[in-house]
Amino acid sequence: MPGTESGPDRPGEGDPGRGRRIGVDVGSVRIGVASCDPDGILATPVETVPRSKERGPDAPDIRRIAAIVAEYEAVEVIVGLPQTLRGERGKAASIAAAFAKRLGRQVDPIPVRLADERLTTVTAARALRESGVSARGQRPVIDQAAAVAILQGWLDERSRSGMATDASGDAEQQPEVGQ
Q: What share of the chain is helix, strand, coil (3-state, %, to 5)?
């Protein structure tokens, strides 16, 4: 199963091909959500979903993200896995993995994958601060920016691995270096 204790998933195996993907940054208070264009080139913010105290498969946060997945006709969902800097799973990673599992049951058969997201929230906050956005009252924006960073990282790695598609939906063959 994707996202086992061995670590995050990687683009490639089981790739659904062309289509929108949804990126999710699971926090303890809010969940940032991002999407990409059908060609999987650019991630953009969607919304910030309040984290529900309920933990069942029908919790309001799970239902809202499942609705976004359906609305965007997503082919894949990428949930950030906040591992430690040493690549180990802490409490936050376990929470994100459990959330991904519950979401996966709700959106089946759309795959829900876990992506390494070390430092994305820190990077997103820094980028917003450097662009002049005040951190005060901007946590929802930071959560969305972190979701964008998670999804963009996945898209970039997917592109580098040769899984990108052209406008016709055919897989582009990436020339090898030196050809």
A: 35, 20, 45
Tracing tokens 């951190």 back to the chain, one arrives at 135
The answer, as to whether pTM is greater than 0.70, is yes
Provide the residue count of the chain.
Answer: 179
What's the whole-number mean pLDDT along residues 93-101?
A: 93
Nearest to 110 by CA among 33, 5, 17, 6: 17
CB 25 within 8 A of CB 153: no
Phi, psi of 23 (to 5 degrees): -105, 140
Rounded CA gap, 105 and 132, in Å?
40
Tokens representing 73?
Answer: 């006709």
Give the pair of three-digit tokens for residue 96. 């994100």
> 3-state DSSP call for residue 104?
helix
Q: In what order do the strands lie in the sheet with 112-116?
A: 43-50, 30-36, 21-26, 76-81, 112-116
